[in-house]
């Protein structure tokens, strides 16, 4: 009887199909005044490809809903996607669209966990999505130069387009002359996301977000720092980029230092390939 049972089990191992190893999946989230193409233009995508990652496509949004632009790389073991969010919209609005994109990617990769990678405001949007909607299949969040404790640049931008008061018209004229009509209208149109990125204070998004329970996943903070040649990040201070400074995440984030400015560069692709 034992011999027959052993033979039966052996036959099962021979004839049952082997489980395919799951792929690694990363989703790249751009920041304010940016789009999905920034990962390509900066050279990040090229360095990820060199490290064996395959671009699986981009997900964007239209009045008709989610639009997927796939490429033929979905049988690879390491896949990365980009998303095209409306970067002038509020962080909660962007988080809801990001959730829809991540759900679609999860459906296409049902057996794999997902790493979210957010640059600048994209890191805040990704973290907000996790807090608002739960982690789903996301098991890691990597943020690059993200203003988790806000940035004074958001306050300055809001002040620049605040044309209220007795001398508002005069102020508007001077500001338009300084930054141009195009940028003035862009800042006016993005007041919502700018409010979301001011330093935490009662009534602000970051004050609320940073006190909320966060999912039990891995957190990685890529922090910009200065050096002998470069001044470092002039948009978001280094302490604000460290998720360990968030009350709800204190001591839970790994830190990686990157000696460069705020914008993405090929070095971020090299660093991401190492972290991923």
Structure description:
- The N terminus is likely disordered.
- It is globular and about 60 Å long.
- Strands 3-2-4-1-5-6-7-8 form an eight-stranded mixed sheet, with helices on both faces.
- The protein is of the alpha/beta class and 276 residues long.
- The protein folds into two domains: 207 residues, 3-Layer(aba) Sandwich (Rossmann fold), CATH 3.40.50.1820; 45 residues, no CATH class.
- It contains twelve helices and eight strands.
Q: Beta-sheet strand percentage? A: 15-25%
Q: Can you tell me the CATH superfamily of the largest domain?
A: Alpha/Beta hydrolase fold, catalytic domain
Helical segment count: 12
CATH hierarchy: architecture of the largest domain = 3-Layer(aba) Sandwich
Summarize it.
The protein is α/β, with parallel strands linked by helices and 276 residues long.
Summarize the SSE layout with pairings.
Elements lengths: L1 H14 L8 E6 L8 H4 L2 H7 L3 E9 L2 E6 L7 E7 L6 H18 L5 E6 L1 H13 L4 E7 L7 H9 L7 H12 L1 H9 L1 H6 L8 H5 L8 E8 L12 H4 L11 E7 L6 H10 L1
Parallel strand pairs: 1-4, 1-5, 2-4, 5-6, 6-7, 7-8
Antiparallel strand pairs: 2-3
Comma- or semicolon-separated keywords:
276 residues, alpha/beta, Rossmann fold, eight-stranded mixed β-sheet, 8 strands, disordered N terminus
